[in-house]
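Retry 2 of 3 after timeout on previous attempt. Resubmitting structure tokens to design endpoint.
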């Protein structure tokens, strides 16, 4: 058997619903929406007045509003707005080819599900729905703040636009601020054991990715920005830290530890898996702690059994997105000093620029042509990087998506949600099927997955498509080598990475008596910074006159942070005679 070489270059609380419930009067409402103006334009919608420009292409509108609401607060702890209605006395008008829709005179009321909202026009027709709500209560100031809600196009508005596929697309971020009349004698019933820190055995799971959608598009360059929503749950027996960056030092790490979210997009064409887009690093900042086993009633502690959500608009906010390189993915520790947010290392958050257009490197960007390859299948993937997480693979999830261009807007039909990385949906490690294989390696310094599919192309020749995924190996991968039988006739050798920059493509050396080796190229006497980074996938392909056998091996080369280079072996399906 020829082996592959891999070279390393609180006490359980009584449910709050069982406690005395308070019903808070909510008055003096303030309502604002940050509309995604470029996305609305792509949908054929214009706002008048256009609104106040804010970062990342959004336009802010503050509404005149009147009305009262009632809040539900079991144990004197806010849970949801349960009843009432707000009337918008002023607001912009939506102009589109088939008509208009004025938001002046519209109503805003709680939806049928907790923490959701419905905005209906003066005639009662639903125009928007809203979800993925975050909330904070300022008890001293007696204010309730509801924010980061995805404002989504309703079915009826999409029909009026002549584009039913646009239903459910988030086109803005809704905020509602209210005076909160909390009974003077009320006392918060806060469980004491929910901040039971369990390092190093956190177990946070990504449990859903409800939306995948276009955030911006440049028709001239053909660039498209895409972001998902994400839902997670604390699956472990201990709490996880969720502190906003630069907010202070807190247990259990004596810093402002918080999780990070990244997302990727892939395409399968002619059987080969290729990554076509990658986001920057989203810094999480609070948790809503819903459906908890034990709720700490602290938005910076994810309690046992608690769930949290982040909407697509929230994940399209440049204020919280930096480079992936600033985090060690194995430990989940952020290198604050010298980061985008603290360039001079003084511990004070710097002003962060908004996105530099559609092609900003902090955004997941694909091209129109990426999404229009006939016969292709697409996958979207998200991953929360959580410090001391015992299982990074249940913190990742993916779902097949179907891109459709409606006018100037891409929409994405969603297949079933699957726990785990997208490479596992391409080749299932537990059941790879014929002529396929997948092997996962724990290096002690992180994890990589190598998967392959072999296709009979006729006349005794086979095409091999390999995908190499660096999950959390921070020291990166710089070469990849595949053994081949002596005297092989090798053709159609190829390489693919996600950055669309030919200068970073790896070079290949073909030795028909020994192997095919791809490696980071040297350019002008230096190595191009094109090693396979964490959270990224590179693809390799070739054709050869040799059928697949599980006894062949594959060789790859990974770069460690410091010499010397170390070598290990991975046995996986490859060509043999």
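Retry 2 succeeded. Sequence:
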């Amino acid at each position: 058997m020829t082996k592959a070489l891999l070279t390393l270059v609180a006490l359980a609380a009584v449910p709050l619903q069982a406690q005395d419930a308070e019903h808070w009067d909510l008055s003096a409402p303030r309502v604002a929406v940050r509309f995604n103006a470029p996305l609305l334009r792509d949908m054929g919608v214009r706002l008048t007045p256009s609104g106040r420009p804010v970062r990342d292409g959004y336009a802010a509108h503050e509404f005149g509003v009147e009305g009262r609401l009632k809040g539900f607060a079991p144990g004197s702890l806010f849970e949801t707005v349960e009843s009432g209605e707000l009337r918008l006395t002023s607001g912009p008008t939506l102009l589109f080819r088939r008509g208009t829709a004025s938001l002046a005179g519209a109503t805003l009321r709680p939806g049928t599900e907790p923490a959701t909202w419905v905005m209906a026009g003066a005639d009662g027709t639903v125009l928007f729905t809203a979800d993925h709500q975050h909330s904070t209560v300022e008890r001293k100031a007696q204010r309730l703040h509801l924010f980061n809600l995805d404002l989504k196009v309703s079915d009826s508005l999409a029909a009026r636009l002549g584009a039913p596929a646009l239903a459910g697309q988030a086109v803005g971020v809704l905020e509602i601020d209210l005076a909160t009349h909390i009974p003077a004698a009320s006392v918060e019933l806060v469980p004491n054991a929910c901040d039971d820190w369990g390092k190093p055995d956190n177990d946070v799971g990504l449990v859903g990715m409800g939306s995948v959608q276009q955030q911006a598009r440049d028709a001239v360059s053909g660039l498209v920005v895409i972001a998902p929503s994400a839902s997670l749950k604390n699956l472990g027996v201990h709490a996880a830290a969720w502190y906003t960056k630069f907010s202070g030092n807190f247990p259990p790490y004596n810093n402002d530890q918080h999780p990070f979210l990244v997302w990727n997009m892939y395409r399968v064409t002619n059987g080969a898996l290729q990554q076509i887009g990658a986001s920057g690093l989203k810094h999480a900042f609070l948790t809503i702690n819903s459906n908890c086993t034990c709720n700490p009633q602290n938005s910076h502690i994810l309690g046992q059994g608690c769930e949290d959500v982040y909407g697509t608009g929230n994940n399209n906010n440049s204020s919280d997105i930096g480079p992936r390189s600033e985090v060690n993915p194995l430990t989940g520790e952020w290198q604050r000093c010298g980061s985008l947010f603290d360039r001079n290392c003084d511990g004070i958050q710097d002003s962060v620029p908004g996105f530099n257009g559609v092609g900003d490197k902090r955004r997941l960007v694909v091209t129109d042509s990426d999404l229009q390859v006939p016969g292709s299948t697409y996958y979207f993937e998200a991953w929360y990087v959580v410090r001391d997480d015992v299982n990074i693979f249940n913190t990742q999830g993916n779902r097949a998506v179907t891109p459709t261009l409606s006018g100037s807007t891409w929409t994405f039909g969603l297949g079933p949600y699957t726990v785990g990385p997208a490479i596992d949906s391409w080749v299932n490690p537990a059941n790879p099927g014929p002529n396929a294989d997948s092997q996962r390696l724990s290096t002690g310094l992180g994890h990589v997955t190598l998967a392959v599919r072999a296709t009979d192309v006729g006349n005794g020749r086979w095409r091999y498509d390999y995908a190499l995924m660096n999950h959390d190996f921070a020291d990166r991968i710089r070469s990849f080598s595949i053994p081949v039988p002596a005297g092989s006739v090798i053709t159609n050798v190829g390489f693919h990475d996600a950055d669309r920059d030919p200068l970073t493509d790896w070079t290949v050396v073909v030795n028909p008596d020994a192997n095919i080796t791809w490696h980071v190229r040297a350019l002008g006497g230096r190595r191009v910074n094109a090693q396979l980074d964490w959270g990224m996938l590179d693809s390799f392909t070739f054709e050869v006159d040799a059928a697949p056998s599980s006894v062949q091996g594959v060789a790859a080369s990974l770069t460690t942070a410091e010499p010397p280079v170390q070598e290990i072996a991975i046995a996986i399906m490859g060509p043999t005679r």
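Attempt log closed. The first strand starts at residue 6 and ends at 8.
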